[in-house]
Write a structure and sequence with these properties.
By secondary structure, the protein is of the alpha+beta class. The chain is built from four helices and four strands, in the order H-E-E-H-E-E-H-H. The longest helix is centred in the middle third of the chain and has 13 residues.
Length: 107
Amino acid sequence: MALPAEMVAILADLAKPVDFTGQRKRKTRGGNHSNPEYYRWRKAVIERDGHKCTECGATEKLTAHHIKPWARHPEARYDLANGVTLCRDHHIAKHPHMRWMRRKKRT
């Protein structure tokens, strides 16, 4: 069975190098999210979901949420099926124990 053209384009984009100039590292339990593979996975999840929160349809402040937790399932960290696009508010609701997510970002 052939993949849809849009998925082929997303997967082809995953192979491209990522520029991290000026980005800070954010350490997490089980690793950090400052590697090219993570950013390609995040971009692919958001593109697959049409740049919309799957809970409310919001199109701003989008994040990629791991369905199976990052720290407990290293084998699924970059599996597209293990990701879902959420707006910041819905992502925070999924992780009430993570205080760093609730901090307001400086503008």
